[in-house]
Amino acid sequence: MSHLITWLNKGYEQNYILKKPYVGAFILFLFCFGFLTVYKPLGTHGTQNMSYQVTMAIYCFAFAIPFFGIITLLRRNPYFSDGKEWTLFKELICILLILSGIGIAVYLTGFVVEPSGPRWNFPTFLNSFQSAFLIGIIPFLFFTAINYRSFGMQTLSFMENENSVLKETVEETIEIISKLKKERLSFHPGQLLYATSDGNYVLFYLNRNHKIEKEIIRNSINDIEQQLAHIPYFMRTHRAFIVNVKEVRLKKGSTLGYHVRISGIDTEIPVSRSYTQAFNQLLGQYH
Description:
The chain is α+β, with helices and mostly antiparallel strands. It has helices at residues 2-8, 16-19, 21-39, 52-75, 78-81, 88-113, 122-146, 148-170, 221-227, 276-286, and strands at residues 174-177, 184-187, 192-198, 201-208, 211-218, 234-238, 241-244, 248-254, 257-262, 268-271. Helix 6 (88-113) crosses helix 7.
């Protein structure tokens, strides 16, 4: 149930009929009139004084005019006023309220259109309400369904982001141990952009929560290379650099040596001549 509620409250593009009430009322009238005159559903019929087409036209006005009035009132409510923060749940509630109002309008229209008779009873009201709901819901659902593709893409994107976060959460944690064994550095493999030697220290450039962070630990680049050896996309590209090949976004140079750029980093990282062939193979594997 909680997943269903979350799904219903995700952003959704507003139904065109609801977004453009003037045009929406016209579309609603045309659709309902065309549908009623072509298919004659639910035992609809003309009256003694009017043809079938004229009778259906009057009833269709009973669809369009109340729709415009109800949507205008709903827009005055803060919950339905902001189309930019629209959700599927808001849309379904809005359609339900509109169709309920239309059902009442159709029932009252029957007192004008139909021959005089005992109409003040629940079965007649229920029949009018049901007919209005079943016919009126078709154009609403049609325009709602049109927007489902974009909603599906949003949902897919949301799921991919959630899976990415989950993957990072369950991904193994790397622990870099200092030679002095007094310092430890922990991070997920995907967070490391590159590491570089600086005298007796190694600097780690990490992407944590879309922010580049720099960590330093006393150790040698050779020892760090051994500690990272089990991660296949980490590669020693130079005597002073270890690179996350997945994060390489630009490569320039020749087989005599490259310079590469890492995501979010302006610094150019060298790839020595002795590493170019292995680097190209690994780059092709992960890009």
